Amino acid sequence: MSQKVLLNATEVKIALHRLACQLIENHDTFENTVLIGIQPRGIFLAERIKSLLETDYKIKNIQLGYLDITFYRDDFRRNYKTIEANRTKINFIVENKKVVFIDDVLYTGRSVRAALTAIQSFGRPSEIELLTFIDRRFSRHLPIQPDYRGRQVDAINNEKVKVCWEENDGEDAVYLINN
Amino acid sequence: MSELSVKHLLGIKYITEDDIHLIFETADHFKEVINRSIKKVPSLRDITIANLFFENSTRTRLSFELAEKRLSADIVNFSASSSSVKKGETLVDTVNNILSMKVDMVVMRHPNPGAGVFLSKHINASIINAGDGAHEHPTQALLDTYSIREKLGDVAGKNVVIVGDILHSRVALSNIFALQKLGANVKVCGPKTLLPKYIESLGVGVETNLQKALQWCDVANMLRVQNERMDISYFPTTREYTQQFGLNKQLLDSLDKEIVVMHPGPINRGVEITSDVADSKQAIILNQVENGVAIRMAVLYLLASKIDRNDD
Fold this sequence. Notes:
The complex is a heterodimer of chains A (179) and B (312).
Chain A: E1 2-7, H1 9-27, E2 33-38, H2 42-55, E3 63-67, E4 98-106, H3 110-119, E5 127-136, E6 148-153, E7 159-164, H4 166-169, E8 173-178
Parallel strand pairs in A: 2-3, 2-4, 4-5, 5-6
Antiparallel strand pairs in A: 1-8, 7-8
Chain B: H1 17-34, E1 48-53, H2 59-70, E2 74-79, H3 91-99, E3 105-110, H4 115-120, E4 126-132, H5 138-152, E5 159-163, H6 170-181, E6 185-189, E7 205-207, H7 210-216, E8 219-222, H8 238-245, H9 249-254, E9 260-262, H10 275-278, H11 285-304
Parallel strand pairs in B: 1-2, 1-3, 3-4, 5-6, 5-8, 6-7, 8-9
């Protein structure tokens, strides 16, 4: 197994700031926008973006929820192991809101497909966008593309992209792992 | 730890403490789901479940049916009173006929103890025991202990007394197993005629004085007197039973602590529990019913994930 650094801490920081700015361009004061971090790993990125928007760009009252997609996945019973669920925490109504899904890696697009179904249980959003930190090109199973991306990566199938966050993994970095 | 150690849920006796915790954690997520405005998830959309009820049931059948529907499973219902069982068909034949229609899971209630275990040896589907005679009623015990965990934070170390007709009660047996696996202390209380002779061999305490039992416990689970299973008289009159083993407000207020009151339903109001107690804030009877749906969703979800697609 070998691993290569795709982004170091500084590069992660720059990408985060750029993503925050791009969000502001489209959502201004976030009055009618809600951020939804996709469980389990999208929540770290979502929290980062929220705190950046609040501290560095002085935007108040950003609504952030966590969405667990376990029960909506289409690979239930196709995996060897049972998929363990995570907590969904959405304390607001998404009806007629602009929703931004936030996840760390976009790979096959199946998680996003599940999230699109799952969010319907909380109302009918006026529109949904997708923000992903790493976009693995040429690996999609479904016609799903991100609206905001931190970095595009060309990785072959037996490679794995791992996004590390300081609060969870001890450092900010993105690795390409070759098994 | 992310899957159950068993393929069927035949009784609490056959599952581990880890299994119970996994079911509880999964039920936490489903409880959040059933409190949304849209209470449905698509997890079991490719699963067909047969609900076979060879004995009457309202709550359990409804609860299973709701749980199945909220997981998007396809379901067929069967009750013995309106079926070919009356024409003399055997259990295995009945079930195999239903399974030839491509059913993946079977939820079964049967008057004979061990019916689920028997069936599991003869058929290929995943079986959930929804009560077999006076043997076990595992989902009831899971929802009871889940409700205790929800109310008191933890089950371990708590004192729980099960009051009433222990002899005919599958709820009592499953509860004893579940409570002990989770580390609670269990006592049973009731007229001697309704306590099984060797109950102490299960490691539970026996108390025939309700006041003393209540003073000892944190939780009292009041069981129904099962008149339909009593072929002889186990106590002189219902009135006498109520006087000695019925829970009333006066008795509850005489305790120097606030205990949690549970009842698996259906309640015989004025017999094992008075209305003012059943409707008091110490009673968590309706929480038990709500938790029942979440627990059954968790059990169905976890067992369904063990069904091998290649077996289909």
